[in-house]
Design brief:
Elements (H helix, E strand, L loop, with lengths): L2 H16 L8 H14 L7 H15 L3 E4 L4 E4 L4 H19 L22 H10 L4 E7 L5 E15 L2 E8 L2 E6 L3 E6 L13 H5 L13 E8 L1 H9 L7 E5 L4 E8 L2 H9 L5 E4 L1 H18 L1
Antiparallel strand pairs: 1-2, 3-4, 3-7, 4-5, 5-6, 8-10, 8-11, 9-10
Helix pairs in contact: 1-2, 1-4
Organism: Bacteroides muris (ex Afrizal et al. 2022)
InterPro entries: CBASS_pafABC_assoc_protein, WYL_dom
Protein name: WYL domain-containing protein
Amino acid sequence: MGRKLEGLQRMLIIINKLKGLQHYVSREELENYVALRMEERDGTPVDLRTLQRDFNEIESLFGIRICFDKKRNGYYINEEDDLKKEQYERLLLNFDLLNAIDSTSNLHTYVLAEHHRPMDCECLPLLIKAIKFSHPVIFNYIYVREGGKIREKKVLPHYLKEDQQRWYLLAYDKGMLKTFSVDCIRNLSILYEETFKRNMNINVEELFKDSYGIWNQTDIPVEEIELSYDALDGSFLKSVPLHHSQEVLVDNEEEFRIRLHLRITNDFVMALLARSRSLTVVKPMHLRERVRKVYEEALKRNG
C-alpha cells in the first residue's frame, strides 16, 4: 500500500473515531483503535509520532484541528471545525472505498465494492488544499466530447461536488463558473505563490436544484414533467427518486405516476432510458417524442 494512500486511510480512521458520541478519546484508546483499523487494511503499525504527523496533515489539508485536553486526558475535534468534519469525512470515505479495497487488502474478502477509481486520485487532496487556502490551480484537461482534445487550464477552485460516483471541480475559468470532471484532470499543480478572493456568495444548492446531476444548462428551460410507470418500477422510484422535485401523483397496483420540475438535459433523458421498462412520458410531448426517437434508432441498429 502506498504511503500517501495509507496516510489518507489513517486520517479517515482518526476523524471517524473523533466524530463519534465520545467527546474525548484518550491517547491509548486512539492509538489502539487506529492500529486495529490499519491492521485490517494490511497497514503498517502506528505510534504517537505517526498520529501527530497525521493531526498536522489533517489540519493542513482539511482545516480540522485536533486538540488534546490535559484535564480530560483526551483528544477532540475543535468545535469551530465541527461543521467541516462531516463534509471531509464523506470525501475521505469515498476516497477510501474507491482506492483501498483491492487485492492488497483483506477487506476484499468480505466487501464487494464497485471498482470505479478516479484516474488521478491525488487530485482530491490537492484540490481541497487549493480551495481551502485560495490558491489557483493549473492542469491539462481532457475534453472527451471533442475526441480527447487536451487544453491547459488555469482556474480559481471553489468547490468539489460528487455526483453518481464521480467528483467534479467547480471553478472560475476566465471569470465564468464552470464544472470540470476530476477524472479528466491531468498534471495538476497548485500555484502557491498566487492567491485569490474566494466568492462565498455562490448558492451551490440553487445552482444545481433544477438540473439532473452536475450539468446545469441554464439555456434549457425548467419544465413540468409527468411520468407514468407500473407498480414494480414505482417501488424502485419511491426508494430512489429521480430528482428532489419528484412528487407522487398516483400510487396504486396499476400505476405509479410522478411529477418533476427540472431542465430536460441529455443526462436526464439517459436516466429515463435506464429505467424505461414500463415508462410512459405523459408530458411534455417533446420529451415523449425524444424518447420515442431513441427507441426507434435503437431498433434500427439492433433489428
